[in-house]
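ingest -> validate -> predict -> emit
validate: passed (alphabet ok, no gaps, 301 aa)
predict: started
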Amino acid sequence: MRIDNSDVVRLGNGSPIIDAYYNGARVYAYDVDAKTYFTSVIAAGGVIEPATRFAIVDMIRALKTKSCWNSILDFGLFCGVDYKGAQIKIKGSGAVTPSYWMSAADYSSTGTSAGFTGDGGVSGGYKYLNTNFNLTTRSRTSLGIFCYFNGAEQTGATRFLIGAMESTTSPQNLSGLGLMRSGTVDVGGIGSAFTSQTVPNGTGATIYDKGFVGVVTNGSNTHTYYKNGAQIGATNLPTGTIVNGSLYVLAANVTGTGFANYITTRTVRAYIITGGMTSTQVSDLSTIINTYMGKFQAAVY
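emit:
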């Protein structure tokens, strides 16, 4: 057994050890993509605790086992890691960049307050995150946008969990997820004209107070909506174009600005951008992400 210069524990024949135990306790776990993430976090000045290392390795392995990993294009995780670690993507190029007004005080790594929390654009600053991911690099006919969040909207208006818009006037094209305080989705599409579409939301006005929600395109203008891994509706939205701009979390990017009227007060614990996914993959993705959140007392379903 030996440790190479990348801190990977290997057998004498060079094969990496996947898991190691001492006196029945897990003391080591390895995945090549998790290793890349850990290295980036440490280089950015972050700290990865052992429990977090195991949880992330297990999450990535599960995503690979369930054939979800290869479908993921961009993945920001805001739970279980410290403030600097939350700015490093689990998968995807670039980093997640907090706005000028966002600080470590707006982030918590564990518990019921885990994640980044928006201010609704009303506290003297615009608090949001830039994913630095532009959907125009992909085809709009096979894409998914997901957010894991907690908390009812406090502004009493439509606000974005994640999104980009070409302008603040209608009609306009949008890409993202916006939720109303009343619980219905009136904004949610990928490269579609903004027409205040409402999607069936099951029963109860609080169904969108928390959970893992997403929209997936399965055709040129067919959008399928999911909550906690289950399909809750599908609709054909007018054909539009994908907004040429980075998706913002906790807000909508409107020509490079987190427009105050679209900044949410909710707390986001993860966002995931995917290629096309089957309903089975979405269900598996939901289960895996929620299991991870549960390890840090941050699961909401």
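The chain has a mean pLDDT of 80.
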